[in-house]
């Protein structure tokens, strides 16, 4: 499911500026560097792009899931994407896979689709990954790339085994400050 792979990929943008060696240093728990980078993803993001020749737009919001003692576990989020007029809604999680020493993204949509992405950081501005997406009972795998343009803008590109190509730009939505009674 190509659009689902895109949704999950968006969630992986946080650590795009970490060197690969920083990720492999800790064997247990979430490396501090990963937590710091994931903090940057908290908030709302908008996306525009194409999957093949179909227009895509969407929005997703991420926040930390925590233990009772406030330790950060992973990011959890909700998304809504529209591809060629068809809506997809769902939830996603992004966290650290200590066994594989990589970022792992998992997501599920309301129509029964699901996907997983495994990311390795290639450079401070480039992630390379593999996606496995399931939709309508079919599995599609692909190679995915995430390019950091700025702290609030990323480009997601994917090449899937079925020949589909995807390219989207994600931008963080600026949070408006709530006015107090004194203002």
Features:
mainly beta; globular; 3 helices
**Contiguous helical run count:** 3
Rg computed from alpha carbons, rounded to a whole number of angstroms? 16 Å
Order of helices and strands: HHHEEEEEEEEEE
* Number of DSSP strand runs: 10
User: What share of residues is helical?
Assistant: 10-25%
Distance between the first and last residues' Cα: 48 Å
Low-confidence stretches: 6-27
In a few lines, what is going on in this structure?
By secondary structure, the chain is mainly beta. It is 13% helix and 56% strand.
Topology overview:
Blueprint lengths: L1 H10 L8 H5 L7 H8 L3 E9 L2 E13 L5 E12 L2 E12 L4 E8 L4 E10 L2 E10 L2 E13 L2 E8 L4 E8 L11
Antiparallel strand pairs: 1-2, 1-10, 2-3, 3-4, 4-5, 5-6, 6-7, 7-8, 8-9, 9-10
Question: Could you explain the architecture of this structure?
Answer:
The protein has 183 residues and is mostly beta strands. The chain has 3 helices and 10 strands. The chain has helices at 2-11, 20-24, 32-39, and strands at residues 43-51, 54-66, 72-83, 86-97, 102-109, 114-123, 126-135, 138-150, 153-160, 165-172. Strands 1-2-3-4-5-6-7-8-9-10 form a 10-stranded antiparallel beta barrel.
């Amino acid at each position: 499911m190509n659009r689902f792979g895109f949704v999950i990929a968006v969630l992986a943008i946080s650590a795009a500026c970490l060197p690969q060696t920083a990720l492999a240093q800790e064997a247990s728990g979430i490396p501090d560097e990963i937590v710091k980078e994931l903090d940057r993803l908290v908030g709302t993001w908008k996306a525009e792009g194409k999957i093949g020749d179909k227009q895509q737009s969407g929005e997703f919001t991420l926040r930390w899931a925590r233990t009772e003692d406030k330790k950060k576990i992973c990011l959890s989020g909700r998304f809504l994407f529209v591809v060629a007029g068809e809506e997809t809604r769902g939830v996603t999680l992004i966290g650290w896979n200590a066994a594989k020493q990589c970022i792992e993204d998992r997501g599920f949509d309301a129509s029964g689709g699901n996907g997983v992405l495994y990311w390795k950081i290639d450079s401070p501005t480039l992630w390379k990954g593999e996606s496995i997406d399931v939709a309508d009972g079919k599995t599609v795998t692909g190679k995915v790339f995430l390019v950091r343009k700025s702290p609030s803008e990323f480009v997601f590109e994917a090449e899937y085994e079925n020949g589909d190509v995807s390219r989207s730009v994600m931008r963080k939505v600026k949070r408006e400050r709530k006015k107090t009674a004194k203002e």
